[in-house]
Amino acid sequence: MRILITGGAGFLGSHLCDRFLAEGHEVIVLDNLITGRLENISHHFGHPRFQFIKHDVTNYIHVPGPVDAVLHFASPASPKDFTAIPIPILKVNSLGTHNALGLALAKKARFLLASTSEVYGDPQVHPQPESYWGHVNPIGERGVYDESKRFAEALTMAYHRIHKLDTRIVRIFNTYGPRMRLDDGRVIPNYIGQALRGQPLTVYGDGSQTRSFCYVSDEIEGFCRLLFSDEVYPVNIGSTDEITVLELAEMVNRITGNKAGIVFKPLPQDDPKVRRPDITRARTILGWEPKVSLEEGLERTIAWFREQLS
Ligand code: UDP
Asked: Are residues 219 and 256 in the same domain?
């Protein structure tokens, strides 16, 4: 297949490139490098089945030749980005999704939207099944991401219903692993960076808020199974192993041997108090569930960050 990945130089996009190239597919990456990085994909430069095009997908997308699948993974996704670059986030998930859908339609390609657990906002249903409509503050700082991803889902379903486009929607929960940016601002790179520098870990609020962290290889497997399934409605892909961010800090300090402890910092606005996917649909429709434990995934991620810092 000839597969186009928007945001293919990002954390998840670049792991998708590795996977599809290894399986013998042709891969075209579109990325404006706002948060993506060339070093995530530079090992593929010169590969006969790989092409990188520096392009902002909020502008019209022109790609010569056939395309069999469009995976729309372009979007900054860290809460730090929500306050730093809110307008590019709104644009890539609205205008960018429209352009990516238009390309898929023109090429008669299958389309996969990278959506998010953020569509559930600060959830009042726990764990979150796909049938839950969410609890989002549209005008808060997180609203730029949450609402534009909700819009992207609505647009994707409209293209499916009106244009009969073959669409998929994955709702991605917290994911971690190699190629996250150390300065990305999210909890795992923050904690690991701090621990490896011998600094105290910054726990926001009282640290009682929960997340469920999925290792990147499991997540990518879920995306591929969904892409090659027939399921049009959203599917949650994420870990069901829920922990508080305070417990996570203690775990990172233990694994790295960091003796600097923790410091408490203010909780960001609208920070969800709990998050854990109900993955019944992924289990039954895709036969998917995560395999890598948090302990093992953290060890691999810490080893990778250690190498980056050395
Ligand atoms: N968090 C934290 N310390 C940090 C960064 C984040 O305690 O240095 C918390 C944050 O308040 C949130 C959780 O960790 O409750 C996950 O934050 P992240 O930015 O990774 O992503 P989110 O799941 O909120 O989108």
From this structure: no
Q: Are residues 299 and 266 in the same domain?
A: yes
Q: Is 142 near ligand 1, meaning CB less than 6 Å away?
A: no
Q: Please tell me whether residues 251 and 127 are part of one structural domain.
A: no
Contact 1, 24 (CB under 8 A): no
* Å from CA of 272 to ligand 1 middle: 9
Regarding whether 27 and 140 lie in a shared domain, the answer is yes
Q: Residue 123's closest CA among 290, 283, 289, 271?
A: 271
Q: Are residues 138 and 45 in the same domain?
A: yes
Backbone angles phi, psi at 93, to 5 degrees: -85, -15
**253 and 161 within one domain:** no
> Is 191 among the residues known to form the active site?
no
User: Which ligand 1 atom lies nearest to the CA of residue 267?
Assistant: 11
Please list, in sequence order, all residues whose beta carbon lies within 8 angstroms of the beta carbon of residue 168, skipping any fewer than 6 positions away: 110, 111, 112, 113, 226, 227, 229, 231, 232, 235
Could you read off the pLDDT of 261-271 as tens digits, one per residue? 999 999 999 99
Answer whether residue 220 is part of any domain: yes
98-125 pLDDT, tens digit per residue, is 999 999 999 999 999 999 999 999 999 9
Containing structural domain, residue 203:
187-209+242-275+293-309
Atom of ligand 1 at shortest distance to CA of 190? 8
- Asked, for residue 254, whether it belongs to a domain, the answer is yes
Centre of ligand 1 from the C-alpha of residue 142, in Å: 12
The answer to whether 278 touches 238, Cβ cutoff 8 Å, is no
The CATH number covering residue 305 comes to 3.90.25.10
CA of 248 to the centre of ligand 1 (A): 11
Distance 247 CA to ligand 1 centre (A): 13
The count of structural domains within the chain is 2
Atom number, ligand 1, closest to the C-alpha of residue 207? 7
> How far is Cα 177 from Cα 45, in angstroms, rounded to an integer?
22
Q: What is the pLDDT of residue 310?
A: 86
Query: Of the residues 120, 145, 176, 215, which is catalytic?
Result: 145
